[in-house]
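Hi R.,

As promised, here are both runs. First protein below:
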Amino acid sequence: MCGILAVLGCADESSQAKRARVLELSRRLKHRGPDWSGLRQVGDCYLSHQRLAIIDPASGDQPLYNEDHSIVVAVNGEIYNHEELRTTQLAAHKFRTGSDCEVIAHLYEEHGEEFVDMLDGVFSFVLLDTRDRTFLAARDAVGVTPLYVGWAIDGSVWIASEMKALHDECEHFDIFPPGHLYSSKNGGFRRWYNPPWFSEAIPSVPYDPLALRKAFEKAVIKRLMTDVPFGVLLSGGLDSSLVAAVTIRHLAGTKAAKRWGTKLHSFCVGLEGSPDLKAAKEVADYLGTEHHEFHFTVQDGIDAIEDVIYHTETYDVTTIRASTPMFLMSRKIKALGVKMVISGEGSDEIFGGYLYFHKAPNKEEFHRETCRKIKALHQYDCLRANKATSAWGLEARVPFLDKEFINEAMSIDPEWKMVRPDLGRIEKWVLRKAFDDEEQPFLPKHILYRQKEQFSDGVGYSWIDGLKAHAASNVTDKMLSNAKFIFPHNTPTTKEAYYYRMIFERFFPQKPAILTVPGGPSVACSTAKAIEWDAQWSGNLDPSGRAALGVHLSAYESESDQNHVPTTITAGAGANSKKPRTIKVEAPGVAIEG
């Protein structure tokens, strides 16, 4: 991923000091693009770019142009169908580079502002038409790439990949909404991404496992487009394991394989003895990847918290818990010379994989919650996956969030996605079944049917316990009791949340910055609406998967009511086991008996 900063319509266009200031602010994004820097000024407009070179490292420096340089564009992202566009709609155009992003300038020449939906990929871009000094900015469908927009006192519009590049200069700023474009010609935002699922209408297409499998395989294959070394993030859970399995199956014969070989590198991070490390090693051995296992201590993570909050630009508890191990792992990966990884984000939102979905009362509520989760991804997992990796100049690609795959998966009648113990269906059953191939197995059965483990849990349960203990040593009861006066918006209700909020506001004290972070109650990553599904949850509001009482095999508390013990899910077993388990907590870890 790259970093972009655009300043459009500033008052002091002839000032050398203004150019110097834009360069200074752009350097705040250099971690996103350490390979090259570019700046183009046209009158009162500046387009700045910090490049991470993945495609055409030799000649793809930005900003990019059309043939006569009248169209200037700065882009962060990947356009997976750029070769097809070059040979079809843009066959009459002359290209200066091999960059996948150059097609944007030429598509604008051909189609004006109506071309954005033609792009198959993830992107944030600002395009300047020097002929009439108008500009266009756009962000990808669900917000895989980050983007912010701000307005300064002199009337200028600021657009940047990260908040840190514009928050000091703007009177007001906000998240640039995913799936939208901003046009200076029309003076505002317009949604360009309008898929059928966005209305939250209940779909009725019957489940076709082969169609779902093919759609995901196609999404992974697209993301093998690279001119630099790459690998996969492998936690050993279902989603990352499928990413690795499909990549292994289709890597041979690709341009990437011809350049870098067919041995796939996989990466995992965790505390010593954590669930993810063990599961990832098993999957890596099964698939035959070149596996790299990174360990960190609770203290390592705590020491990195301030850097994590600065880079992720959030005080959301879930995001910080999960971002920290990913942030540490990304540094190690980059040190090995790898610049791109493929990851498994998005599956849980699309298929209802979080454990609280077990309590969905009906298929309508189940589907609406998946829609709400996808719409919010840009503030949670997309933000984490992008910013925690980009902090070290590493790009993360997410095939589950491919536009075509989302459309395929979200068109399925949600009755098929529901957790149905009576039918042996656990969470994400439709995805598991699609890859349950007896003749040519993608994964071992017990991995294919492993229970969902949130990343911040899977790296080791004592990670979260350690964070809570550290926060408790830094936030007093008196501080927390006055939280509503100190932090009236999104008031922290735990010492951990209070601790993160203090750090965040030290870096980003402005009110608009505080408003960019979502809030509200959550259990096991649910939306506030889904808490209504179970009366127990309102008293156990914690984003960890272990907060899904009666669902997670390592839930926080012992369940006296055995009706809450899942009868169809057991660790390392098939979906038909009927033996219940009792749970006993032993601080700081969790012991399972039975």
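And here is the second one, sequence first, then its structure tokens:
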Amino acid sequence: MNETTEFRSPRDSDGHGTHTASIAAGRYVFPASTLGYARGMAAGMAPKARLAAYKVCWNAGCYDSDILAAFDAAVADGVDVISLSVGGVVVPYYLDAIAIGAFGAFAAGIFVSASAGNGGPGGLTVTNVAPWVTTVGAGTMDRDFPAEVKLGNGRIIPGVSVYGGPALAHDKLYPLIYAGSEGSDGYSSSLCLDGSLDPNVVKGKLVLCDRGINSRAAKGEVVKKAGGVGMILANGVFDGEGLVADCHVLPATAVGASAGDEIRKYIQLSQKSNSKSPPLATIIFRGTRLNVAPAPVVASFSARGPNPETPEILKPDLIAPGLNILAAWPHNVGPSGIPSDKRRTEFNILSGTSMACPHVSGLAALLKAAHPAWGPAAIRSALMTTAYNLDSRGETMLDESTGNSSTVMDYGAGHVHPQKAMNPGLVYDLSSYDYIDFLCNSNYTTKNIEMITRKGADCSGAKRAGHIGNLNYPSMTAVFQQYGKSKLSTHFIRSVTNVGDSHSIYTVRIRPPHGVAVVVEPERLVFRRVGQRLNFLVRVQVEAVKGLSQGSSVVKSGSIVWSDGKHIVNSPVVVTLQQPL
């Protein structure tokens, strides 16, 4: 470690830890803002919770040994919730330090939440997928920070930014260039990599840069060093239309992929010799905008299912706010995170599933305080079965990357709903033994399972549990391989524990996935007391999809809902049909 830039203690020299910790448990602060943006009262989810921080990440990376040591220390210290805004690639659970550490925490009764990862919007990108971890994706809020690009042809293009310095003139247009058509090496200059821009060309101009390789704010520094007056940052095709606001070091804004194409085309047309007007533009900063609709929307970067390690367990579990989140920031780091940024701010606005995860961690702390007897599985169940998937319009939440409706693979059980989670009615509970049966039925060897459990594992009872889909999870996922069969069927066994009213009768309402027959037995659950546990069986039958090409799959989703007239307990039912290679 470099003792001049980082500390041999949990003290933060980066900003990520301060930001995520304050989202979970920051005390009330008024007034709070970042460079004048998002003014108001700031608070974490559980402002009165006590906070312990364990450092696992250094400038050189996050080491498995530190992750395991931090889990062991937190368990020994008697924490109630562990929040982990860290992730890597998906590997089998017995090789996954986070999964191993989290299993020990679960066995000690500790709720573990982890970020789903920022590898979206592509499928199979979700990480931290162990079923004993609550995996959190990211959604937007009804607030944004518009910064529009005004082109010389009169077009206004939407963008976002948290730039707080002297603005560009509204009544003046600046010469506009695309970095990719100016440098000697078009690829590195298009990305505005360090040293790729020629000051003779850039000086006094507004520069369009493409996303990728270096950080978004670093591109702005490269443009500023070359003498540019401002930057427009364009998404690539894969980033889609998802926009992230940054604390840029010069007047700058971020625009979507299609807007980037439009601006490049405008520059090309204007530069043609017969064009009378050279390419011109400016950026107009609009500050903070509230009551943005629709909201929430699934953030473009939020990692998506299906679960690459265990397709029968739906991941992410749920989503929470993760786009443009204001939270605390250390006084020794500039808000752009660039070493040369000497600005200082008490709060910063960041985006990522790193920000979504501590929202859920803080809510778990509130649930634990309200219901001390609840274990980690009950807390996760309460958060999942009360989550919602409709936005402010009353329609299915949109996917920011495409503008189309999102799916269960994007949001899992839905967007977390704190008030409803306090009183879920029924919970799907789980013990360590259930997870050992799950691992046995996942065809892990006893040796591999014992690497996860760190104690003896007995697989003799696992056959009784049936298949891995019978893990008592709040969501139900069936994965069928179509080996020329015309009808495919399976079943799920589930048990629910009454945490609502002592005498209550729940009836089931089935919203089957399209073209899937779903039967629940029994259709009524009659509870006599609180804490009583009753079982039910879900049968799923579906006809094979004709004409499915090799290696492709079809996902259909629905839900089963238990209600006693007061509580609504919702579980996603997902059916995937795969045509094997």
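A quick note on the second one: The longest strand covers residues 487-498. Let me know what you think.

Best,
J.
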